[in-house]
Write a structure and sequence with these properties.
Layout lengths: L1 H22 L1 H6 L5 E14 L20 E5 L3 E10 L2 E10 L4 E7 L5 E8 L2 E12 L5 E8 L4 H4 L13 H6 L5 E11 L2 E9 L28 E12 L2 E11 L20 E13 L2 E12 L2 H8 L18 E12 L8 E15 L11 E14 L2 E11 L7 E13 L15
Antiparallel strand pairs: 1-2, 1-3, 1-19, 3-4, 4-7, 5-6, 7-8, 8-9, 9-10, 10-11, 11-12, 12-13, 13-14, 14-15, 15-16, 16-17, 17-18, 18-19
Length: 440
C-alpha cells in the first residue's frame, strides 16, 4: 500500500510540475528542462526450462532426468532513473528498481477465522533504491560522488542495461559469483582523462555470513535490515582504456575484510579472533564494436582468505526460519570466463539492427579449501545462441536458446527465452559518463 501511494504521489508531483511549467514561463526559465533527466530500462521475459528445478536435482540426479520442466513469465527489472543538474558542478542521480514485478502485500480481516488480521503476500519480488548520489564536478577529469552508487566491478555491473548485452537475461557467470547489480552507499572519486576513465570507491565491505556454495559472493552485499552494516570498509576500483572508437579494455577489483561485518558478531570468544576473511577480486573485460561486428568478454577471479573458518562459523549461526543466512560451505576461490560474439545484418548506420549472436560462459562458484566437501554441480558451462531485433534505438526484441552443462553425473539444463526490453533517457547529454550508463 505504501509503495502504491508513493508511486501515485510521484506521478501527481510530475504532472503538477508539468502543468505549472506550461502556465508559468518564469518557472520554466528558472528550472530549464535540459537540467532534468528522466529515463530507465526494463525487461519482460518468457522462458521455458526443460529441466527440473527441484532442490534435490543435484543430490538425486537420476530421479529428475526425465523432468518435463516448466515455463515462466517474469519482469526481471523495471527501472526509473532521474537526475538533476543544480549548476556550479553539483548534480544528483537516482535509480529505483522493481525486480520481478516488485512486491505486493496486504493486511486482511478474515471473517471465517474469528476476525483475525492476517498479512497476505500476494506477489514476490523486490523494490530497491539502487542509486541516490550527490556529485561535485571540477571538470571531466575530477568528480566527487557521495551517496548510493553502482559499484562497477566486473563487466556486468559496469554494463547492466539490457541494451549492453545480447542475452535475454544478464550474463550468468558474473551475476552468480558477484552481487549484480552491485550498489552500495559510500564515497567515490572518478574522472575521464583523454582515453582513460578511472574510479575508486570507499564502501561497506561484503558480509562473509552471506557467502554460499551456489553463489559465492553473489548475495554478500545484501542486508536484511533497514540499514547496511559497515563494521568493515572496503575499496573498489575500475580503470577503462578506450583504445580507439568502439574498442575498450577495462580492469576492476575489490579488496576488503568480510568477517564480523554483521550485527551478529563473534566478539567474546578467541576461536575466530584472528579471522579476517579478506576478499580479493579482480576482473579484466573488453568490448569491440566495429561496423557490423561486436565482441565482449571477461575473465574474473576471486579469493577468500580463511574460507574454512568462515564455513565453520557460518554453520553455527541461527537456522531459524527467519534467519537470512544460507548456512553452506564457502569456497576459497571463484572464477568466471565469458565471451559473446554478434553480427548485425542491417546497415550499421541505421538505428535498426538485427543481430545474431553466440555466447559461452564458464563459472565455478565453489572452489573449496583442500579437504572440504566437493560440489561438482558448482562448475557450470553455459552455451547459448540467439537474435536481437532493434526496431528503434531504445527497444530490443530478444530470443535465445541455451544449454547449461554440468559434470557428467548431473543432468544438463536446456532452456529457451524470449524478451522485450527498452533503455532510454530524455536527455542523453546530461548522463554522459555516469554509471547510469557507465561504459558509454
Amino acid at each position: 500500500m505504501k509503495l502504491r501511494i508513493t508511486i501515485l504521489y510521484i506521478a501527481f508531483l510530475l504532472l503538477a510540475i508539468s502543468a505549472n511549467a506550461q502556465q508559468n514561463e518564469d518557472t520554466l526559465r528558472r528550472i530549464p528542462s535540459s537540467h532534468f533527466t528522466i529515463g530507465g530500462y526494463g525487461e519482460a521475459v518468457y522462458s521455458r526450462h526443460m529441466y527440473s528445478d527441484n532442490v534435490f536435482r543435484y543430490s538425486f540426479a537420476d530421479r529428475y532426468a526425465d523432468s518435463r520442466g516448466h515455463s515462466q513469465v517474469d519482469i526481471p527489472h523495471m527501472v526509473i532513473m532521474m537526475g538533476y543538474d543544480f549548476g556550479h558542478g553539483w548534480t544528483m542521480g537516482s535509480e529505483i528498481e522493481f525486480e520481478h514485478g516488485g512486491t505486493e502485500c496486504a493486511v486482511e480481516l478474515e471473517s471465517e477465522e474469528t476476525g483475525e488480521y492476517e498479512k497476505e503476500i500476494e506477489r514476490g519480488g523486490e523494490v530497491a533504491l539502487e542509486q541516490f548520489w550527490i556529485q561535485k564536478s571540477w571538470g571531466r577529469g575530477l568528480n566527487l560522488r557521495m551517496g548510493h552508487d553502482v559499484v562497477p566491478v566486473g563487466a556486468t555491473n559496469a554494463a547492466h542495461l539490457p541494451s549492453q548485452y545480447f542475452g535475454v537475461y544478464r550474463p550468468e557467470g558474473e551475476a552468480t559469483i558477484l552481487p549484480c547489480t552491485w550498489h552500495a552507499t559510500g564515497v567515490s572519486v572518478w574522472g575521464r582523462i583523454g582515453a582513460w576513465r578511472y574510479g575508486v570507491w570507499l564502501i561497506p565491505s561484503l558480509n562473509s555470513t552471506l557467502f554460499s556454495v551456489s553463489n559465492w559472493a553473489g548475495g554478500a552485499s545484501a542486508s536484511p535490515y533497514e540499514f547496511t552494516v559497515a563494521n568493515k570498509l572496503a575499496l573498489a576500483s575500475r580503470m577503462d582504456y578506450y583504445v580507439t572508437q568502439g574498442v575498450r579494455i577495462g580492469v576492476s577489483g575489490f579488496v576488503g575484510n568480510t568477517f564480523n561485518n554483521d550485527i551478529v558478531t563473534d566478539e567474546f570468544s578467541n576461536k575466530y579472533s584472528n579471522v579476517k576473511a579478506l576478499m580479493l577480486f579482480g576482473s579484466i573485460d573488453f568490448s569491440i564494436e566495429k561496423g557490423r561486428f561486436t565482441a565482449r568478454g571477461n575473465l574474473d577471479y576471486g579469493h577468500l582468505n580463511d574460507a574454512a573458518k568462515v564455513s565453520a562459523y557460518n554453520s553455527t549461526l541461527s537456522n531459524s526460519s527467519q534467519s537470512p543466512y544460507p548456512h553452506t560451505l564457502v569456497g576459497e576461490e571463484a572464477v568466471d570466463a565469458a565471451l559473446e560474439l554478434g553480427w548485425n545484418w542491417i546497415n550499421p548506420s541505421s538505428d535498426k539492427q538485427f543481430v545474431t549472436f553466440a555466447r559461452c560462459d564458464y563459472y565455478d562458484s565453489y572452489i573449496p579449501v583442500a579437504g572440504l566437501t566437493e560440489y561438482g554441480w558448482a562448475k557450470r558451462m553455459c552455451w547459448s545462441v540467439g537474435a536481437n531485433y532493434r526496431p528503434v534505438k531504445e527497444v530490443i526484441l530478444k530470443a535465445e536458446v541455451g544449454m547449461r552443462q554440468l559434470q557428467k553425473q548431473y543432468n544438463s539444463e536446456p532452456w529457451v527465452a524470449l524478451g522485450v526490453t527498452y533503455a532510454g533517457f530524455s536527455n542523453r547529454t546530461r548522463m554522459t559518463d555516469s554509471p547510469l550508463q557507465y561504459l558509454k
